[in-house]
Every structure is written in structure tokens, then in C-alpha cells.
Automatic annotation (TrEMBL):
This is Tetratricopeptide repeat protein. InterPro entries: TPR-like_helical_dom_sf (IPR011990).
Amino acid sequence: MAAPSKRKEETTILKKQIFEYHRSDEETKSIPYLEKYLTISPNELYFKLVYAKALLYRTDLEVPGNDENIESRINKTRAIQSNYNKASKIFQENVLHLEKVRPRDPNLGRWYYLWAFSEWFSDNKEKSIKLFQKAVKLDYRLTECYYNIAALYESLGQWKDAELFWRKYEKAEKELEEEE
């Protein structure tokens, strides 16, 4: 009988630490706690999403410098890319699951928004555009989605589409200001 109570105590301590780091915008420091928590409770949908967010906002991976040798730059770039790919995969599995089990979840748009960034940083620009569109459809207050879509279209050389989304961004921002 002691084992379940010990497990509950351990998960409570881990949750407290994870939330403390997230409240103070130190997601990177929460990663080992999230990994341990998910080992104990692997089916916790919310904590999987929090883990993906922590990977997305991760600050402990070294950025390659121009003065480094090519092998070092490649290794650092691969580590960063692998991290974004992992975040993207976790978001994909769990945001889609969340949408099925809680289609009216008030944070669903925000999770799509974060997933879109992980795809963008994984160099999946077209997928990122679609996810930003879904995010703003779910939560109209995420007007920066239009801004990001416009920037993505510009990076793809699709100037007419970019211009359309710059206008949508300006209009949505104006409407939000009027609403407040």
C-alpha cells in the first residue's frame, strides 16, 4: 500500500517544481522534472504538452558560432534541429488528441500556435502556416498568427499571399483594440 502513496507524493513534488519553473518563465529548467514526471505518469496529456513547450522554449542548447570549426557547428545545429523536431512530434500527437477529447478546450488555439512555431523552427513552413491558421480560427485573439503567416509567405517568396496576411494582421489588431 505504501508504493501508490509514495508515487503520489513524488508526482506532487514534481508538479510543484514544474509549475514553479513555468510561472517564472524558466521552462528549460523544468525539462528534467517533466521527463521524470512523464516516466511515472506517461499518459498525462497536459504534461506532454507542457514538455513540448519547454523543448520549444529551450535555452540550454549552444548556438553555433561563425568562428567554430564546421564539425562543431554541424553538431550544434543538429542538436537544435533534433530538439525542435522532438517538440513538433510531441505537439502533433498531443494537440490532435486534446482536440478529440476536449474540442472546446479554451487553450486549444494556444497549443496550435506553439505547435506552429515548432514546425516553423523545424523548417516545415507550409505546415506551420496551416497550424497558425487553425490557431487563429480557434482563438481570434491570436492575431500574431497573421503576422507570422505573412512572414512565412515572405520567406517563401509568395509576396501576394504575404501582403494579404499583413492586411489581415493589421485589421485583426485594429479590431482587437476596438474591442478593448
